[in-house]
Amino acid sequence: MNKRTWVRNILLPARIPAACHALVLIAVAAGPAAAEDSVEAIVKMRIASMETMDKAVKNISSSFDPVFPYEPQEVMAEAKKIQAEAKRIPELFPEGSMTSKSEALADIWSRKGAKKFTKNAKSLVKRVNNLVSAANRDDRDAVADEIRRINRICEGCHAKFRKN
C-alpha cells in the first residue's frame, strides 16, 4: 500500500483510535518499515482491548459463583471497562491491520463482512449499555442475562471473523 492509499483509506476516515494517529503519521513520513511498526501497534492495542473485555466478562460471570460474594460496585466497574472497549472495536480494525500476531480474518474488511462486523459491534455496544444500566440498578438477573447475550455476540463474531 503506498502512502497516498494509506492516508486515504486509513487516516482520513478516522477508523483508528486517536492514540494511533501519531503512529500512522510517523509511518507515512518514514515509509514502509514504520508503517509495519504502526500496524503492529494497532494489533497490540486490539489484542489488549479484547483481553480487557474478556477478563471483565469473566470477572462479572464469577460474581454469580456462590463462592464469591456479589459486589455491585465491582460489577459496575467491570461493566464500564467492557463499555469503554466495546465502543472502540470498529476503530481497532482499520483496513490492512493484519500481522502474524493478529487472529482477525480478512473477511472483516470485505464489503459484506464489514457490514456484518459493524452490525455485531453495534449490537455489542447496545448490550453493554444495557449491562451498565442493569449493574447501576443492581439488577442481578438482568446483569446475568446481558452477560449471556454479550457472550453470544462475542462468540458469534469470533466464529465468523477470528482464526481458530
Notes on the structure:
The longest helix has 31 residues, at 32-62. The chain is built from 6 helices and no strands. It is elongated, with a radius of gyration of 18 Å. It has helices at residues 3-11, 18-30, 32-62, 72-88, 111-137, 140-161. The protein has a domain at 49-161: Cytochrome c/b562 (Four Helix Bundle (Hemerythrin (Met), subunit A), Up-down Bundle). The protein has 164 residues and is an all-alpha fold.
Q: Which key terms come to mind for this protein?
A:
mainly alpha, Four Helix Bundle (Hemerythrin (Met), subunit A), 6 helices, 73% helix, disordered N terminus
Short summary of the structure?
This protein has 164 residues and is an all-alpha fold.
Topology summary:
Layout: H1 3-11, H2 18-30, H3 32-62, H4 72-88, H5 111-137, H6 140-161
Helix pairs in contact: 1-2, 2-3, 3-4, 4-5, 5-6
Number of helices: 6
User: How many beta-strand runs?
Assistant: 0
Quote the CATH topology of the domain at 49-161. Answer: Four Helix Bundle (Hemerythrin (Met), subunit A)
General form: elongated
